[in-house]
Amino acid sequence: MIKKIIVSICLLFAIGAMAQQGSASPYSFYGIGDVKFKGTAEAAAMGGIGVFPDSIHLNLQNPASYTSLKLTTLAFGGTYSNSNLRTNTQSEKARRTTLDYIALGIPMGKFGATIGLMPTSYVGYKNQSMVQNTEIRRSFGKGGVNKAFLGLAYKLTSKLSIGADLGYNFGQIETKDILFLNNIQYGSREINTSNLSGLTVNTGLMYSSKIKKKYDFYGSLVYSPHANLNLTNYRKTALIVYSQDIEQETIVPGSEIEDSNNNDKSIKLPSKLAIGTGFGQDRKWLIGAEITWSQTSSLSNRFNDISKGKFENARRYVIGGYFVPKYNSFNSYFERITYRGGFRYENTGLLINNKSVNDMAVSAGFGLPVGGRLSNVNFGIEVGKKGTKANDLIEDKYINFTLSFSLSDKWFVKSKYN
């Protein structure tokens, strides 16, 4: 009963947290927003590597890993982000806190299942600019896309597992643009709203084998086919009265016009292929590398008249791993701590002013055992840079602090005594 209450509280907390603004980047205006990392905080601390199966940690990147679970595992985590946004002439700081995922993994012999909720993308920005005292532009964005998913995996042999996730994506994105011209009595305001929904599939293979009975070798393959997000779009335009308060708007009576007839469309989400490999020693150390290719060139913007941002195929390179001094130490708690680290570099697939928007970061973290050795609290830090000041773009230098819980126990065991 207590476990059911804990899960219910976590799910309610997740639904509330998903409504928060999870991005401060102007780049989130394009496509479906700032696409989020779809893995656990433990994986993020290793650069985002997803090639390792684990008996007490969920691997949300490769669904084939669910067969490695030995205990029922409840995992949830969040991030506190601090961004420093810069152009050639301006700078701004932003902070935000988000819940990144909540998932429950259940072992079932040769099968493994997972159910969870996580964000797919975030939209969130607020800008104001002036052009030689002749015009003032204000831009706002909020919302995003969330994904509820259900995964199932099966162990084909002692070394090879296969799995798949089915996800339902849903959400709303709203962007607002305001323009005031000098010597013009009223300004113009345009609000674009999109309601998004659609199904996605993520499939995976995971291979593991012993080398000389001491070392472990892992191979990982993940493929997500193209999927469609259906959009119901609305556009409202109006005349507004100028105000120095960036949050204040007064609509001129009778000027608001709503257009909801010809803007519905479908966005094709890109297919993705990830190949990774790992090598190490069980319960001691592991290091791995992974390459991901995404057909992001098939992505488009929410409205057909948004033409500035374009898309190209994306690539992502990751290397990372962990080290445990002595997992079963009775004398030193610090020897049971898991130490993690990693590096990633990616071309995000977004192309603005003929300049690719790249993202690179280094990360580190550690896992603290609690309640014995099965459950743990994980801390991580990621320091990175997205974008550039060249070609009139924006450079985002960020620091992300992550906190997650991985709670493992034997569930669904019938009591032998009353």
Which descriptors would you attach to this protein?
418 residues; mainly beta; Porin; 14-stranded antiparallel beta barrel; 20 strands; 5% helix
Instruction: Could you tell me the CATH topology label.
Output: Porin
Mean pLDDT over the residues: 87
The secondary-structure class comes to mainly beta
Question: Per CATH, which architecture?
Answer: Beta Barrel
State the strand order across the main sheet. 2-3-4-5-6-7-8-13-14-16-17-18-19-20
CATH class reads Mainly Beta
Tally of strands: 20
Helix fraction, binned, reads under 10%
Topology pattern, helix = H, strand = E:
HEHEEEEEEEEEEEEEEEEEEE
Largest sheet: 14 strands, antiparallel, barrel
Poorly predicted ranges:
none
Q: What does this molecule look like?
A:
- By secondary structure, the protein is mainly beta.
- The chain has one domain: Beta Barrel (Porin), CATH 2.40.160.
- It has helices spanning 2-18, 41-44; strands at 34-35, 72-86, 91-108, 111-131, 135-155, 160-181, 186-211, 215-224, 227-241, 250-251, 257-259, 265-269, 272-281, 285-294, 309-311, 314-323, 338-352, 355-370, 375-386, 395-409.
- The protein has a 14-stranded antiparallel β-barrel.
- The radius of gyration is 23 Å and the shape is elongated.
- The model has no long low-confidence stretch (mean pLDDT 87).
